[in-house]
Each structure stands twice: as structure tokens, then as C-alpha cells.
Amino acid sequence: MDLNKYQFLYIQTMYDYFRENLQWPTFRQVEKKILPTHRDFRVLDVASSFEDNQAAHFFYQHLDVPATITLKEIRHYPEAEKDLADLAKVIRYCADKYVNSDEDQVTVTGEEVGRNLHFEEIAVRKVGLLLVLTSGIFTSFSNPEQSIWHLTASQNILDVEGIQSIDDYFERLDERIKSYQASRSSQNAASIMSQNYDTSATIEKIAQADPSDIKAIGVSALSLSTGYYNEPLTQSRQSFLLMRIAAVVCLLLFGAAFVILILQEPANLAYISMIGGAISALFSGIFFLMYRHTSGQALAYKPQVDRTQNFIVAISACEIMDEERKQRSREEIIRWFVGLQPNRSEDKK
Question: What is the 8-class DSSP label of residue 140?
């Protein structure tokens, strides 16, 4: 990410204040530092312009709150290199302790970090405040602004085991994010494809087929269309079956009511049978409407499915043409598919 002038000024002002005061400045303090020389500087707009900065998600009623910054932003500031190197050492130390500890909850304190890594108190306090900006390596953190800070390591710290620099940390973090996104995408795709009439195998066949093998493409496209029509057909058949069952129950109940009236049995039984028959007739009508709706949906979508099939087959047919005709034909097919008029200039040529 390339920083503009104001983004760099924001990071520089934030970090210089942090190094001097061992705490983060407020938005107002950052603003007062920069405004005298840059009158068009708008601190909240600049903070919000960074990708992961919390200022992009919250509206502040006033500026007297701690300004927000991320490790990615700090990494752009050369003066922070030593502090980020110390942070990487502490992260590696926490990961090593998590691996080798027999405790159910692995804790790390600022005091032990200073003792075991030979950090001065100021360095321990800086690292504590920078650790708060990391992602997923601890489950709890107390007193980050003091050298006696105390954290409980998370299992996710194993993802950054053995890092040698802050760049390694970001690479591991990106890998974890991509892995998570890929897993979610696979789950979503599996869920969607399981509802799309088992078309995944057919689509895969089309993707892997030789583009010049028109027969294979055509058969796969036909299979895809068949899979689409089979599901509405099954739903229609189920609705039709339920409609018939409801209609039969309706007739039986009305017939029973008629017999009861003829035999002059208690009238209440006849009324109950008639009411039951009416309810069955109502459900029969509902199932019939469902049947018509499902069939209508399939018919309404049929032209779109056929259009896509024709496009796939036509594009495949172009593969057996010579290069000049293939390119010209592809262009015309694409123009047809997206609804544009044919290119008459090519015909004149």
C-alpha cells in the first residue's frame, strides 16, 4: 500500500507521540500537531482511509478519545522497525512457551519477558501496547500500558510459531485469513451446489472438456439442463400426489356426511364430516396451486437455460474453424449472447 502525504503524517505523529509518552495520542492531539502546517488535514478522514483502521467503522462524537492505528500502518514507519522487531521476538517467545508448557492456560507476563529476553522496562511497555494490536494470539490481556502486563496465550498462536520478523507475522496472518476464507467459500459452494440439482459434476465436466469436442460439450450441457428440469418435475409430482390424496379424503368425508344424513344419524357427525371435507378441499386447492407454480417456474426459466446451452455449444463449435473465422464467429456469438446487434462492418469485409 502506497501512503499519501497525510496518511504518512498521521502514522508519524501517532508513533512519535507513542515513543515519547508510552501511550497513544487522542485524535485531537494528532490534529493539533498537524493542522498548523496543513490546514486541510482532517484527522478522522485520514484515519478512516486506512483499510483496517477502526475509525472507518465508528463515528466519534468528539476527538478526545485515543486515536486508532494498526500494525500494518505502523510497519510503514521506519522509526518503528526496532520496536516491531522486539514485538516479533515476544510473539515467538509466547508461541514457544505455549508449545512447551504443561499448563492448561499458558500465561506470559511483561516481567518474564523483560527477564528472559533482556528487555528494558521501556521496551517491555512498548511491546505490551503493540501486542494489543495483534490478532488472535491471546484470549485475555491485562495492564497493557504497564511493564507488569499479563496475557493468556491462545491456541492460534501456533500459527505464528517460529517467526523471525514482523513480516513473517503478517505472512502467517494472511495465510490464516486465506485458509479461513477458502474454507468458508468451500462450505458455501457445497451448500449451494447441493441445492442446485447435483449440477456440480456436470459443470466440472464442461470445465474440463476439450473445447473442440462438440459432442462432449453438448452432452454435458444436455445433462445440466436435464438436472434442472428433473427437480421441478419431482416437486410437481409431489404436489400433484398430495392434491389427489386431499381430493380423495374430501370426497370420502363428504360421502360419509351424505350417508349419515340419509340414515338420520346424529347431525353433528354429518357437520363434522362436511367441515373436514371442506378443509381437505382447501388443501387440495393449495397443492394444485403449488403444482402450477412449480411448473410455471420451470417453463419461465427454460429459455435462459436453453440460451446458455446454445452459447456453450456454439463457442465450442468455433474451435474447429480456422483462426480468422473462429475469432469473427466468437465475436458474433458473444454479441448475440449479451443482446447486442450483429457487427455489420465485419460482413462488409
Answer: E
